[in-house]
């Protein structure tokens, strides 16, 4: 297959992606993401708009120092403002100064924008596009022309829209990208219009979709089916308004489902890692339900599903998770069957025999606890402790014999929280008190104070997330609450749960499980198979 027929991947996370609400990247962040994109197999990375802010201008200076193996860098901007002032246009000259091998510029292909926004006639707009593209080409730069609002423009006046594309083609554009800028088109519209355009334009076509109709990925794939060979999108679909077309869904689909070849050798098994990496640098919470790369993408909860997956994962998984760097997960909940328990036991290194009575009883125990409000699909450490305790493999390293909270605050803004605990460790009682920033922190401090001399390793454990959910809409302040906490020792993280009508008691349950889980892992290095 010739390179002309292979799919070219264009990433605009660093430019269009940063226009999303709540998305911010430092120059260092952008450079780190650039390197990861290059290693992954992205062909062209759009770094920013050098004429718009000092940060992007600095990026284009520093990115030249990176030793990229595959990707080409492109600067982004618009056509000139006036057809008769091309050479003096500040935006175009900033693009030239950026020194990138590629430049992507957008031009108006919807008469509504050309007339109302720029005040240009049809001929003037076409002349503006032609001259802007030609000016950049004359400076030795390859030009990718983004036909802004193309699909809306084509539906409004196809003659005008095509005339603008032909102007970009005449100016020497390398690739012409059809943009669904408002994100409101449907897949059948994208497909039919792209096919029509493909017969009128001699240059390679690209696609740039937004996700305002939740169709960014579907519209991109429809365009590929219609003949485009250049795809634009962002990692995790970040971007303005509802975001851009999500490359983390597009790339696996075109490679695994559509069997398309890409220009570069894409490291598809790293796509889940890249997704999480970009979320981390953007300080955004990963989408656990994201296709292909989300934590829940290959998670199984229903007992029937799990039973089938254990026989052959193809029954409920459309691809192998490893192909996209993800992994299969089985969740224990009130929907669980014996298969869930056996799967989780195997995952934890516990070998259960085929006697079904134990699994059946334990499943009923889990379902009863979930009925009371416990949730183990988000607290797998608590589940492991329950299972190992049921098997007689683990007992609690300490017991809370007594707990008391003292909370005081006044109208001057003064507040004080103190926890008093009586804890038993191997028959030895410790009676301690500690204050803290709120009752949960005071409880945590008091518990640590009580048992640190017995288990100094807990000093490494710290709470990194704390969630409370009220259970039951009709009980008001008397309702049960579920507390989920996530803990870490710097090397691994784990989650535990507590449930009670008393938020302090629920919190103490979760904290106790968290520390017991850490101690079990520290003191049980040789986890033996258990026969039941």
How do you describe this structure in short?
The chain contains 17 helices and 16 strands. It has 532 residues and is α/β, with parallel strands linked by helices. The protein has three domains: 7-281, TIM Barrel, CATH 3.20.20; 299-372, no CATH class; 399-523, 2-Layer Sandwich (Double Stranded RNA Binding Domain).
Can you give a write-up of this model?
The chain is α/β, with parallel strands linked by helices and 532 residues long. Helices cover 38% and strands 20% of the residues. The chain has an 8-stranded parallel β-barrel, surrounded by 8 helices. The chain has a 3-stranded antiparallel β-sheet with strand order 11-12-13, covered by helices on one side. Helix 12 (303-311) links the parallel strand 9 (299-300) and strand 10 (329-330). Residues 525-532 have low confidence and may be disordered.
Give the strand line-up of the largest sheet: 1-2-3-4-5-6-7-8
Instruction: Briefly note the structural class of the backbone.
Output: alpha/beta
Question: Which range best describes the helical content: under 10%, 10-25%, 25-40%, 40-55%, 55-70% or over 70%?
Answer: 25-40%
CATH class of the largest domain equals Alpha Beta
CATH superfamily annotation of the largest domain: Aldolase class I
How large is the count of helical segments?
A: 17
Computed CA radius of gyration, to the nearest angstrom: 29 Å
Total number of beta strands: 16
Q: Strand share of the residues?
A: 15-25%
| Stretches with pLDDT under 50, minimum 5 residues | 525-532
The end-to-end distance, rounded to whole angstroms, is 58 Å
Instruction: Name the overall outline.
Output: elongated
CATH architecture name of the largest domain: Alpha-Beta Barrel
